[in-house]
Amino acid sequence: MATLAETSLTDGLIASGAEVLTDEASLDFYAHDIYSRGADLAAVVRPTDKHQLAAAVKAATDAGHPVAPRGGGMSYTGGYTQDAPGTVLFDLAQMDRVLEVDDVNMTVTVEAGCTWAALRERLSHHNMRTPMWGTLSGLKASIGGGMSQNGIFWGTGRYGSAAQSCSALEVVLADGTLLATGKKHTRPYGPDLTGLFLGDTGALGIKATVTLKLIHETDFHAYGSFAFDDAASWFAASSEIERRGIATECFGFDPYLNAIRMKRDSLTSDAKQLVGMMKKQGGVLKALKEGAKVVAAGRDFLKDANFSLHVLAEGRIQAAADADINIAREIVKMYGGREVENTIPKIIRANPFGPLNSILGPDGERWAPIHGLVPHGRSAECFAAFEKLFADHAEEMERLGVHYGTLIAAIGGAGMVIEPCLYWPDESNPLIDDTIEKAHLKKLPKLDANEEAWELTQKLKKTIVDIFFDHDAAHFQIGRTYRYRDSLEPRADALLKAAKAELDPHGLMNPGSLGLS
Predict the structure, then answer these.
(1) d(C-alpha 370, C-alpha 420), whole Å
(2) In this predicted structure, what is the pLDDT of residue 270?
């Protein structure tokens, strides 16, 4: 039987007009992220607009309950999972409208629950996009989550991270106040109040609406894929390509992640996706030729590559895009690399927001990426530290079936993301099972809980985080995982705490996120 306090909370939340979930199955489902389960929730609220959001936040905090935002649910760093029971979680998936496309002032305003994939589809009718236009998880990942957690991928090589495309926000504070942070057409105006809430992992407020800059879509694309025999050359070439500003995306895989991708991906699916894209870009004949090239290349074109690098360029005319890829070729040659089939960048670009089946490994293993944004000058030595870590634990990892692969990505004007991905045999969770395509999930073996492999994964993850800290890394998706506050000087940390105290005096807004209690 519900207590009087529980009934009062539920009544207050319902009075906001938002949908309120309190059944056991829903509360268990929403307590998970991709990596782990947090503490039990008091309720889940699903508002449909900013006014319902503000009223429900006020009702929850007036009743003394912490609140936390959830976007697409794709966090794996404790962005919204809780350390203590009793939080009211706000699922913003129903706040998914594109509110305004302003093609005069070149901005678009969306509700925070709008996904990157939905925004791309809407803007395609205007032949426009945002500078950074989505993460690889953009089929489910929300734009509000992208602003709270920051993020990278599409457009990142030239335009930086997600937060750099944002010009203004409306944010609901812990007391239910709806705060507008700045001018839609320019940022910053005076001190950057919009920036205060970007990358805050929901510790300072819940995003209600987001305004992003717009640019015209480009019509011409070019692609290059390359292979290197050593990591130092791989990093050196990637960094030089970023410094030259020639790539919209520049990313690569170490030999272990190459092997995982080749095992997981479907050749038939590759060809179909590529044909669809090439029909749009160059007609049926070009599409059929490219599809045939994928089949001919097969899945073995990287079998002799230790480290792969994939570069995408775009331009207003085809010659401009081709010229940028030619520069990349020269850079790769200078660092001892060689060109291979450019199947991978074409396929990924053909389906930029594909199904999220890779959140389990090809044999049903659990998956956990841990990343850091490292200065160019320290990326190779940071990667070498990871190779030593895995070599030191090789025997134990092999015994327990724990393995890894590493992704890198060049970030415009910022450095290099290095992302070791851990895989280990363990049971899935409700969020993972709901996210993966049902047909794909049926093909995967169902694994049992494996406490020993989980404990080793936890130990490796913590050490990876510490290695990043030692190499001056920054992070996206800070959540409850990365050592953000440890990196701040005392006065900067005091400023952060003062901002938290002003905006959330009772410590009820996503407590624990950013390391703030």
Answers:
(1) 6
(2) 54
Tokens of 200: 């805050």
Closest C-alpha among 190, 196, 191, 149 to residue 171: 196
19 Rama class: left (phi>0) / alpha (psi -120 to 50) / beta: beta
State the Cα–Cα distance between residues 166 and 156, nearest whole angstrom: 14
DSSP string, 290-303: HHHHHHHHTT-TTT
Residue 317 identity: I
Report percent pLDDT > 90 for the chain: 88
Q: Which residue has the tokens 């927001």?
A: 353
Q: Which CA distances in Å does 138 have to 74, 92, 311, 438?
A: 10, 15, 20, 19
| Partners of 224 in the β-ladder | 311
307-342 pLDDT tens trace: 999 999 999 999 999 999 999 999 999 999 999 999
CA dist., res. 315 & res. 320, Å (int): 5
CA distance 218 to 320: 11
Interatomic CA distance for residues 117 and 434, integer angstroms: 18
- In whole angstroms, give the CA distance from residue 78 to residue 479: 5
Q: What is the pLDDT of residues 412-451, one digit of tens each?
A: 999 999 999 999 999 999 999 999 999 999 999 999 999 9
Tokens 């350390």 found at: 83
As given in the structure block, the two tokens for residue 407 are 């992704």
Task: Return the structure tokens found at 443.
Answer: 């093909």
Going from the C-alpha of 92 to that of each of 124, 243, 356, the distances in angstroms are 24, 37, 20
Residue 391 DSSP symbol: H
Asked whether the bond before 188 is cis by omega within 30 degrees of 0, the reply is yes
Please give the C-alpha separations between residue 321 and each of 218, 288, 314, 316, 474, in angstroms, as whole numbers: 10, 22, 5, 8, 31
According to DSSP, the β-strands at 107-111 and 87-91 are unpaired
**309 close to 214: Cβ distance less than 8 angstroms:** no
Span 256-270, average pLDDT: 71
User: Would the pLDDT of 2 be above 80?
Assistant: no
Residue 505, amino acid: P
What radius of gyration do the chain's Cα atoms show?
Answer: 23
State residue 212's pLDDT score: 98
DSSP 37: B
The rounded distance, in Å, linking the Cα atoms of 373 and 284 is 41
Q: Which residues contact 280 (CB under 8 A, 6 or more apart)?
A: none
Q: What is the C-alpha separation between 367 and 422, in angstroms, rounded?
A: 6
Say if residue 12's pLDDT is above 60: yes
Position 262 confidence tier, pLDDT thresholds 50, 70, 90:
confident
Report residue 260's pLDDT band, with 50, 70 and 90 as the boundaries: confident
Whose tokens are 């995408």? That residue is 312
Write down the mean pLDDT value for the chain. 93
The type of residue at 497 is K
- Of residues 501, 462, 497, 500, the one with CA closest to residue 483: 462
pLDDT confidence of residue 278: 53
